[in-house]
Task: structure prediction
Amino acid sequence: MTRPILGIETTCDETSAAVLDAHGAILGLVIHSQDVHRVYGGVVPELAARDHLRRIEPVVEAALGEAGVRRGDLGAIAVAAAPGLIGALLVGVTWSRAAAFALAIPLVPVHHMEGHLFGPVLEDPDAVPPFVALLVSGGHTLLLWVPEWGRYHLLGETRDDAAGEAFDKVARILGLTYPGGPAIERAAAEGDAARYRFPRPLLGRKGGAGSGRGARAGLFDFSFSGLKTAVARTVADVESPARLEAERPHLAASFQEAVVDVLAGKTLAAARAMGCERVLVGGGVAANRALKARLLGAVGPGGRLFAASPRLSMDNGAMIARAGMYRLQRGDFGGLAEASARAPIPGVVRR
Ligand code: KG4
Ligand code: ZN
Result:
């Protein structure tokens, strides 16, 4: 394909559109982060869907304008069709179906997490398999072994909360704003990460053994709800609002340190197990500087860390367009894209 591709992302609370040229370079990218949810401390699905509906047309127009591309010049439309909030997904998928039909061009459904996997590729042509991928977002925590594009061996996933979800919930407990990740990272910058010793769930375990909550968890599985509860208990013990104010940076830093220990520890153990020191990190939590610094420091001189810049780590249409290009080249599309709230990444197998 030699014509530009349009990518559409509406799985959660970002309405985004991007135009890439035939080589995968970003010609235009617009991300509208919905602020209607802020007062609720989390995403309200109904409000998300309505806001996507209001924004999708102007967001696409702005992306095309930035790219200097007319609708008639487009060669294909890629849309994030799963997983996510169903009402939000339906807006992007329905809009894209109608547009592709009207323009008589292919419509390529993309799995949102495969989109995150392609995020780093937008800025670094070396970001190609083989690598171990840590995908950390508001809804997912996945550790994958990727020997080649399209073959995804699931090494581990979360047993309860996703990593981003843990940041969001702990932010709420600490009285910080949504989204919690950036708020915790900012607060943590002023804090002492050694002040509180929070648990590192499922870290350093042998896998499969033991009893209780983590009994059936594999070596590379994650669990964050106990960590969240530990922070909540500690906060409940803080005697006064003034004291909490003073302790907040230390609580944020200590929590972040625990999450980074777990995410980086498991990712590096997986890289060692696969005999491959190439690591890719994607998803909103990949914007976290402490996480990236830890991974970078640990991959070793012979290894590589692939991570997108924060704008391309969060939900965006460019990663969807890039993953769509890959699926299009493989001839792996066709039929009508169906929106689906839950779906495995195409090509995933459990090791
Ligand atoms: O991938 P994403 O933009 O949306 C989903 O697919 O869910 O990820 C959003 C998640 C939120 O939970 C947010 O708190 C988290 O990513 N996040 C961060 C940071 N920036 C965003 N977590 C930790 N540190 C950050 N700097
Ligand atoms: Zn995402």
About this structure: Residues 66 and 115 are 22 Å apart (CA to CA). Residues 112, 116, 137, 283-284, 315 surround zinc ion (ligand 2) (CB under 6 Å). The first strand starts at residue 5 and ends at 9.
